[in-house]
Structure to design on (414 residues):
């Protein structure tokens, strides 16, 4: 007889799958600020299909994509899934986590019940025509973000993943450390090392927006590990200090400038003049911090609409602006003259393939990359943690919540 439900942290005998589980759930009628959108509920444990694994979640990482999920914008993830034929009228987010494999579906041979794993955040169809023809799975038409576009992410007692999302958890790492770094770390790694010939080389100046954030904290360290020179943008002194401690050459406070947002109309000479003055002053500050008059060969972008015009202007001739998000909006302007005359590259980048995930896990396991876990919360803190992220009031680096792991080392969020 199957037990119907276990309490959080009350771990069933290995391999025993209850009928129901606790989950932090978003529903369409609650779309809005994260503190209102997330609610703890009891839902059915999903069936494990061929090629899949059910993982008992120990800890889950907090990321910006579930800020978007809770807002229901720019994508209503529940309706989008229903249009693809899924029946569930709820969303369980969480695109990274750590835990123990609890059940496996037909045909799974590379992971087994009892394996301690770190979960990566993208899924694809391994038999998709483009993958069979050699495409990087991250570029496949079949690719989607687990725990955002697909359901049953890590904000629940059990997560449903494809077997290849399970990576061996290095021994000695706590559950919460293992849960917090892979999404931002591997995304930053692909941005900085995945787009040859613009992978960071020794001596390359690199401009990093949001240096104290999840992506930024990983990007500063990866740039240093490659011999590059990271210059980080922040919005206060505490964040600036944090970036310098991680290895930034120096920082720029973006609040000292006001030329942000979309470009003025090309015919509005006065506004264009003010914008040009602003962006040139920002460029001079970059030189000051770098200590020499060189432009960034790589600009790590994710802030989007407010900063893309500056990124494209500042980027070196034949350099690259590499972007993985649009925190401030996704309707950004580019003065195309700088793109073609100076032969710059604007490169989209999205999470990471499995090789890149393994490289980043290795870097953390061997001490080359600090996971930058700044805060560990409890299961009921999921909404609050996303709300602070939405308001840009969250702690530096990466954050995690404990799901089934013992509740030690919790810190409070103000
Ligand atoms: N495509 C992917 O695979 C992928 C993966 C990870 C993340 N992302 C996206 O990347 C973005 C950042 O993620 P994250 O985890 O690093 O988030 P995060 O920890 O919240 O960091 C974002 C940083 O952006 C900075 N920021 C806020 N408003 C800004 C503005 N107006 N101009 C410039 N910077 C601003 C903030 O730093 P300051 O206020 O100190 O400047 C903040 O620390 C999100 O939109 C996320 O969805 C995409």
């Amino acid at each position: 007889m199957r037990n119907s439900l276990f309490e959080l942290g009350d771990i069933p005998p290995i391999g025993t799958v209850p009928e129901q589980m606790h989950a932090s759930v978003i529903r369409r009628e609650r779309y809005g600020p994260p503190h209102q959108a997330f609610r703890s509920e009891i839902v059915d444990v999903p069936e494990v299909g061929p090629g899949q694994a059910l993982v008992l979640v120990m800890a889950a990482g907090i990321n910006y994509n579930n800020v978007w999920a809770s807002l229901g914008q720019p994508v209503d993830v529940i309706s989008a899934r229903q249009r693809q034929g899924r029946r569930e009228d709820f969303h369980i987010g969480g695109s990274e986590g750590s835990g123990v494999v609890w059940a496996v579906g037909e045909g799974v041979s590379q992971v087994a019940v009892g394996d301690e794993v770190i979960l990566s955040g993208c899924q694809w169809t391994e038999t998709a025509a483009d993958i069979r023809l050699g495409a990087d799975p991250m570029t496949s038409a079949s690719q989607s973000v687990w725990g955002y576009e697909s359901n049953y992410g890590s904000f629940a007692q059990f997560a449903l993943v494809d077997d290849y999302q399970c990576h061996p958890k290095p021994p000695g790492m706590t559950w919460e450390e293992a849960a917090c770094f892979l999404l931002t770390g591997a995304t930053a790694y692909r941005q900085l090392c995945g787009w040859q010939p613009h992978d960071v080389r020794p001596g390359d100046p690199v401009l990093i927006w949001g240096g104290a954030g999840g992506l930024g904290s990983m990007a500063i360290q990866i740039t240093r590990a490659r011999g590059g020179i990271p210059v980080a943008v922040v919005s206060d002194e505490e964040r600036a200090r944090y970036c310098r401690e991680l290895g930034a050459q120096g920082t720029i406070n973006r609040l000292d400038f006001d030329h942000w947002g979309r470009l003025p109309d090309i015919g509005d000479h006065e506004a264009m003049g003010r914008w040009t003055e602003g962006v040139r002053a920002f460029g001079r500050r970059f030189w000051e911090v770098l200590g020499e008059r060189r432009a960034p060969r790589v600009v790590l972008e994710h802030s989007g609409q407010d900063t893309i015009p500056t990124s494209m202007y500042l980027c070196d001739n034949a350099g690259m602006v590499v972007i993985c998000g649009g925190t401030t909006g996704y309707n950004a302007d580019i003065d195309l003259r700088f793109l073609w005359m100076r032969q710059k590259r604007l490169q989209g980048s999205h999470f990471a393939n499995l090789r890149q995930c393994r490289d980043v896990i290795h870097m953390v396991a061997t001490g080359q990359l600090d996971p930058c876990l700044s805060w560990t919360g409890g299961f009921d803190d999921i909404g609050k943690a996303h709300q602070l992220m939405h308001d840009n009031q969250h702690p530096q680096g990466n954050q995690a919540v404990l799901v089934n792991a013992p509740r030690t080392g919790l810190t409070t969020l103000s």
In short: Residues 63-65, 183-184, 187, 209-210, 212-216, 233-235, 239, 254, 302-303, 306-307, 324-325, 327-328, 350-351, 389, 392 surround NAP (CB under 6 Å). The two ends are 44 Å apart (CA to CA).
